[in-house]
Each structure stands twice: as structure tokens, then as C-alpha cells.
Design goal:
single chain, 3 helices, elongated
Length: 68
């Protein structure tokens, strides 16, 4: 009985960890943005570029979820 419950929890955790298709495009854009930000020479400009990537990702997810 315990093994079945544990197996069910592991399967559910796997489904919860899978990205939804709407957010998957945003995650790809985030990875590309991080790649571009990593190429910036200055520490502070690189840091600001990374923060900009996070804000763009948040906006993308908001648009996908809310639809505005």
C-alpha cells in the first residue's frame, strides 16, 4: 500500500514539474535572453540585462496566463 502511494506521488510530482505549453515558449525566450546577457562585458550591465530577462519572462507568462 505504501509503495503504491509513493509511486502515485512521484508520478504526480513529475506531471507538476512539466512545463505547460504556454509557458514553454516563455522559458525558451528566457534562456535565449540569458545567453545574450551572459555575453555582456560589464558586471553591472550584465546584471541589469539578467534582471530585464526576468521581467520579460514575467510579462510573457502574465500575457499567456491572463491573455492581455
Amino acid at each position: 500500500m505504501v509503495k503504491k502511494v509513493l509511486f502515485a506521488l512521484v508520478v504526480l510530482a513529475g506531471f507538476a514539474a512539466m512545463p505547460r505549453p504556454a509557458i514553454a515558449g516563455c522559458a525558451t525566450d528566457l534562456a535565449d535572453c540569458y545567453d545574450r546577457a551572459s555575453r555582456v562585458d560589464s558586471f553591472w550591465y550584465r546584471w541589469a540585462s539578467g534582471i530585464d530577462c526576468e521581467l520579460n519572462f514575467t510579462e510573457c507568462v502574465r500575457r499567456k496566463v491572463i491573455g492581455r
